[in-house]
Write a structure and sequence with these properties.
With about 625 residues, the protein is α+β, with helices and mostly antiparallel strands. The protein has 3 domains: about 240 residues, Beta-galactosidase, Chain A, domain 5 (Distorted Sandwich), CATH 2.70.98; about 240 residues, no CATH class; about 45 residues. It has 15 helices and 28 strands. The strands form 6 sheets. A 9-stranded antiparallel β-sheet has the order 1-7-8-9-10-16-14-13-12. The protein has a 5-stranded antiparallel β-sheet with strand order 17-20-21-22-25, covered by helices on one side. Strand 18 and strand 19 form a beta hairpin. It is flat. The termini are far apart.
């Protein structure tokens, strides 16, 4: 109540101050002699006046920028300075910030959600929808740190969630960097690093703790605790065991030093066939024994090699890529949201082909299943926006619902066999769906609508055939606003355009320019195959009545995407301000001319001169 009252007083005081300043401004305007001001200004040439006005606008604009940047707190400036290391990643949209940050990490077996809660997959679910109540991440609190600022972002390429928290201490930036990920190839492993950088002249004490899990049974093993729990479910039960590195509690970082602490958690789970009908104690004891054994083994491994395994696996998953140029138009889909959505899907999906412990015989069967890609993806491009496939993920329920809709959509549109290969097949199906591309008898068809090609886009890393090569295609827009293709391949592949009327071209690593053609009725605009003869035969099966070059896009539409305004390169507020300024300037000149004419001192047609002229003529 006191806070509400103080806020009300603050706003009343602000309102009174504004009223006082307004009265002073009105009084100042009343004291100005407009006639003298007009005469003074009218002596200046128009060109000089225009230069002065432009200079004033430029100074005001620069002051506005400096004022806006100077409003950040010292701690916020520290965060921005540390964040510069990821500026390039922000530009290529490979990290998620602001509304595109994804505070979720997972590998399909284990996950950590927005609330830092451990999640598992149960009952054959395709997503990590089972909340456990266990929080594996540590809490870091700087003792006496004072005011702070922080930023959280997601690295989509290597599957990491990072947090930077800074304090301004004695004119220095004391920062805590937190990073966590769920290992991509070691399905049971969660890794977290805490780095404390203390450039100040005095030591810093941090409190590093882990919340005590509620409802879990704790058993001490050496210096660490093993937590176990059995979750009852419909017709089955899920037993889990977790062991984590101990949190040190109070930790001191000496002056002019930086310290890095590493914490790991090992999670094992097993789904039982009956619900509370059998004794789960032997299973729980076995899980506890397994996590202790794996935890001991991991502590002997070199941390950098464990990190490299994870990073390399994520880079393999991200080898099929899709790019969409940045649009400044309102309410449109952009690349950062696409990459964030792909990251969410991959984090909820197992990647057995990349996991170390996956049996070799099952691996080969899964690879064969992934090759049965016929008719994937058999629908219009998923770039359609807005739709149920693209929405915010502020809450974990929204994130999981979106992932479930995506997986279901890909399954029902011909990609079910590819999804059986896990995340490796899912990422290919995801890129195909965005590209409007689908596999057909030994070739790939790209069926994007030409009317949607008003932004540059591309896909790459799409395999054609078995071990033949990967295709890449990019849609560009020339000076005449007409879209065209640049197509390349890592192996010997062949391509032809809409209708396939022209001779197929041989693709190499150097992009080949191809004209985009549209047909009537509408068919695919690009065909890529492993054999030239296959495309020549395919030409006979494409039955169209008309083939024409793709029409040019309207300049206003391209300007809207490139600049956020259909007018052109400058924002709408600039043109509004410029027009207002010109109107005011000409109104001012008209006022000056009217005042001079009303005075009658310098005009050649005033009554006095007119009377003298008539008298001279009478003589």
């Amino acid at each position: 109540m006191r806070r509400e009252f103080s806020c009300r007083q603050y706003f009343l005081r602000k309102k009174m101050n504004a009223s006082i300043w307004w009265r002073k401004f009105v009084r100042l305007l009343q004291d100005i002699e407009l006639e003298e001001l007009f005469q003074t200004v009218s002596r200046y040439p128009k060109r000089k006046l225009l230069i002065i006005i432009c200079a004033i606008i430029f100074v005001v604009y620069c002051l506005g920028i400096s004022t806006g940047s100077g409003s950040a707190s010292p701690a916020a400036k520290c965060v921005m300075e540390r964040f510069k290391n990821w500026d390039i990643a922000v530009q290529d949209m490979s990290i998620g910030i602001n509304e595109n940050v994804v505070k979720f990490a997972g590998n399909g077996h284990v996950g950590i959600d927005v609330d830092e809660e451990l999640r598992l997959s149960s009952n054959g679910s395709k997503i990590l929808d089972f909340a456990t109540g266990f929080k594996p991440l540590v809490h870091v609190n700087v003792v006496g740190g004072g005011s702070s600022a922080e930023s959280t972002f997601t690295e989509f390429i290597i599957g990491r969630v990072r947090n930077i928290k800074c304090f301004a201490v004695d004119g220095e930036c004391m920062c805590v960097f937190r990073t966590h990920y769920v290992h991509r190839t070691r399905r049971e492993l969660i890794v977290e690093e805490v780095k404390v950088v203390n450039p100040t002249k005095s030591p810093v004490t941090v409190q590093i703790t882990r919340p005590e899990p509620i409802g879990w049974t704790a058993n001490k093993t050496g210096d660490t605790m093993v937590y176990t729990k059995t979750f009852p479910s419909h017709g089955s039960s899920l037993s889990s065991a977790v062991i984590c590195s101990s949190a040190p509690g109070e930790y001191t970082v000496a002056r002019k030093r930086e310290e890095t602490l590493r914490f790991v958690c090992v999670v094992e789970q097993r789904e039982l066939s009956s619900n509370m009908a059998m004794d789960t104690t032997p299973v729980v004891h076995e899980l506890a024994r397994v996590v202790v054994s794996k935890f001991s083994l991991l502590n002997k491994m070199v941390p950098l090699s464990v990190d490299a395994e994870h990073d390399n696996a994520w880079k393999k998953l991200n080898s099929p890529t899709f790019y969409l140029s940045l649009s400044k138009a309102p309410n449109v889909l952009n690349g950062a949201q696409i990459n964030a959505t792909k990251y969410i899907l991959l984090s909820n999906t197992k990647a057995p082909l990349l996991e170390e412990a996956f049996p070799e015989d099952k691996r080969k069967a899964m690879e064969l299943s992934a090759r049965r890609n016929e008719r994937c993806y058999s629908e219009h491009s998923t770039l359609l926006y807005p739709s149920k496939l693209w929405h915010d993920w502020i809450h974990i329920e929204d994130l999981l619902r979106m992932a479930d809709i995506w997986i279901l959509t890909l399954e029902k549109r011909g990609c079910a066999a590819m999804l059986k290969a896990g995340a490796t097949g899912l990422v290919q199906a995801f890129v195909l769906s965005l590209s409007g591309a689908s596999y057909h008898d030994s070739h790939l068809e790209v069926a994007l609508s030409v009317s949607d090609l008003h932004r540059e886009l591309s896909f790459s890393g799409v395999p054609i055939g078995v071990g033949v090569g990967e295709a890449s295609a990019r849609v560009r827009i020339n000076e005449e606003n007409t879209p065209y293709f640049e197509v390349s391949a890592t192996g010997t592949l062949y391509a032809c355009g809409g209708g396939c009327l022209d001779e197929p071209i041989t693709l190499t690593k150097t992009p080949a320019k191809m004209e985009i053609k549209v047909t009537k009725p509408e068919t695919a605009i690009l065909y890529i195959a492993t054999s030239r003869r296959h495309l020549e035969q395919l030409r006979s099966t494409i039955h169209v009545s008309e083939v024409m070059s793709a029409p040019a896009h309207e300049s206003q539409l391209l300007a809207l995407h490139r600049h956020g305004s259909a007018i052109g390169g400058l924002p709408m507020w600039f043109w509004f301000f410029l027009v207002t300024l010109l109107i005011a300037f000409h109104a001012f000149l008209a006022k000056v001319l009217w005042s001079e004419w009303r005075k009658g001192d310098m005009t050649p047609y005033n009554p006095y001169l007119r009377s003298r002229y008539s008298l001279n003529r009478s003589h």
